[in-house]
Structures are given as structure tokens and as C-alpha cells.
Amino acid sequence: MNEKKILLTGCAGFIGFFTAKKLIENGYYVVGIDDMNDYYDVKLKNWRLEILRSFRNFEFLRADISKDEELKKLKGEKFSVVFNLGARAGVRGSVKNPKIYIDVNIVGNLNLLNFCVENGIEKFILASTSSIYANLEPPFSEEQKSDKVLSPYAATKKSAELFCYSYHHLYGIDITVFRYFTVYGPAGRPDMSIFRFIKNIMEGKPIVIYGDGKQKRDFTYIDDIVEGTIKGEKKIGYDIINLGNSRPVELIYVVKLIEQELGRKAEIIFEKPNPADLPITCADISKAKKILGWEPKISIEEGIKRTCDWFKENKDFIKSISTEENI
To answer: What pLDDT was estimated at residue 279?
Structure first.
């Protein structure tokens, strides 16, 4: 087995869990960090973590990356790569409580960069976001000027990217920054629209759409995101790379797909649009294709089918999951 040692933050989160699982299955030894915060239902985080703990080449450390002293427990350990997939997520939550986003997304990222410097770790991967692209013409390219962000969440991610560049320049750390576009799939985040839509339609409850449902999102299936993220191990110096499906669809179209898969009609409540939300997201993925040889394989139609299948298989568990954000 190829037992390269990986440090991965956010291992009980959605993208972190699936990335850690794939790395483990590929023969890596993964040390996973998570603070198990209650921004969304911890039952789902525990469900994911239990699966990871079933592998012999996984080790869990409960720690808060915003507290420098908590990373000192790992001092001297040799990791080939640090995947920083741990973050305080959620655009709307960041508007209500921006400070915690600064603590985790900026200070936490900085602590991990310092950890790399102190321990001679040469490769760092940061999970960033398409929320950085605002007031720009789609498709969004990494080369577009993206300094007019609409939410504190996006501002903290942009800041984390800038710190990554400065540490690459100062210390020679090889850094890949991924800007993810609306990731969805089985065991996804319960605060995200697709999870809420499927759960509520299954349970005969109304769904809420902010705006008229015609806003377009570049929904990207989790397996495609994981594949691209792991390809980010490649040494490239420093670069920012979009990972998206590059085929945006209207939110109302996604609701129709879910209705078809579940054989149920949605009751929809339309509310005022959130001023921090973008009207459309669409990734230019030419850089991912060129540098990493990556492109998405799963269509929105297939992805929604797979996600609905997971919900059907875990119906009782899903019933127990709250979709409320704890802000």
C-alpha cells in the first residue's frame, strides 16, 4: 500500500468526508481534523465520521484550526500534503455572524500555513468558493478581477487565497486553491437547497425558494469534486483552479428533477431574494482541464438521481436530521 500521510481538515464535513474516504481507499494514511461544530446537525457529521473510523488507515483529531495551540499536538509529524477543506460555511450565516468566519476561514487557514512552514510540508490545498465571483460576467474565470465580494463568507475565502499566495512567495510552499461551484450529492450539507428540497418533498413539507427560482447554479456532483481535489496534489507552484460542472441550471429545474425522482409534487413558498446571493454561477473549467486533466463526468440529471437514491435508502435517518442553521 502507498501509505503517504495526509492531513485533512473538515473530515466530518461534506467535501472533506468524501475526499478523505477516497484517499483512504486509494491507500493513503489520513489524519482527519474537525471541530464538530453545530452550524448544522452534528448527527450527520457523526454519521460520516463513523464511516471513516471503520478504516485502519484513518486517525481522527478533534481540534479547532483557529486555535494555534490545538495544532501543536501534531508537531513533528511528516505529512506529504495538507488539504484544508475545513471552513465555516454558509453565505447567509456569515452575514449574521461574520467574526466566526474570520476566526476559522482566515486565522485557521493561516495557522495551517504556519504549521506547514514549521514542519517542512511542501504541498497545501485550499478549498475556496465560487462565491468570490460577484458582479462579473459568466462563465467565471480565475483570471477575472474578483475583489468585490458580496458576503463576509466570500471575503474570508478571498483573504485565505491571498495568504496562500504570500506563503507560496515567502516560503516556497506549493499551493493549489480550488474554487468549488455549488457542490451536492449524498450525505450533503442539510443547510443547502438540494438537501432541504429532497427531505421536505419526501416528507410532504413545503420548500422555500429565495427569489423566483430562475436563478442559475453550476451544481457540481461530489464525486467530480473529489476527483479534482485529489488531482490537486500535483506540484504546480501556485494557482487558483475552478472546479464546476460548467452547465448552470435554474433552481426550479432542479426541483422538477427531484419531483420526478420522488414521484411527488413540491409545495413551493417563494420568498424575497437574499442580497448576498449571486443570480448565476458558471465555471470556466479550461484551466482544470489543461493543468489537471480534469473535467466533470456527472450530469445534474444523474447526480440528482443518485442523491435521491441515497435519501430513499436512508429515509429514517434523514427524518431525524434538522435542516436548520445554528448561527
So the answer is: 86
- Cα dihedral angle (102, 246, 173, 88), rounded to 10 degrees? 20
On whether the CB atoms of residues 304 and 244 are closer than 8 A, the answer is no
Whether 166 shows a pLDDT value over 50: the answer reads yes
pLDDT confidence of 184, banded at 50, 70, 90?
very high
> Peptide bond before 206: cis, by omega within 30 degrees of 0?
no
Cα distances (Å, whole numbers) of residue 201 to 40, 45, 69, 206 = 20, 23, 45, 7
pLDDT band at 1 (very low <50, low <70, confident <90, very high): very low
Instruction: Name the packing angle between helices 152-171 and 109-119 (round to 10°).
Output: 20
Q: Which residues are catalytic?
A: 153
Confidence tier at 219 by pLDDT (50, 70, 90): very high
Weakest-pLDDT range from 16-30, 242-256, 273-287, 312-326? 273-287
Q: Which domains does the chain have, with CATH numbers?
A: 5-319 (3.40.50.720)
Three-class secondary structure assignment of the chain: CCCCEEEEECCCCHHHHHHHHHHHHCCCEEEEEECCCCCCCHHHHHHHHHHHHCCCCEEEEECCCCCHHHHHHHCCCCCCEEEECCCCCCHHHHHHCHHHHHHHHHHHHHHHHHHHHHHCCCEEEEEEEHHHCCCCCCCECCCCCCCCCCCHHHHHHHHHHHHHHHHHHHHCCEEEEEEECCEECCCCCCCCHHHHHHHHHHCCCCEEEECCCCCEECCEEHHHHHHHHHHCCCCCCEEEEEECCCCCEEHHHHHHHHHHHHCCCCCEEEECCCCCCCCECCECCHHHHHHHCCCCCCCHHHHHHHHHHHHHHCHHHHHCCCCCCCC
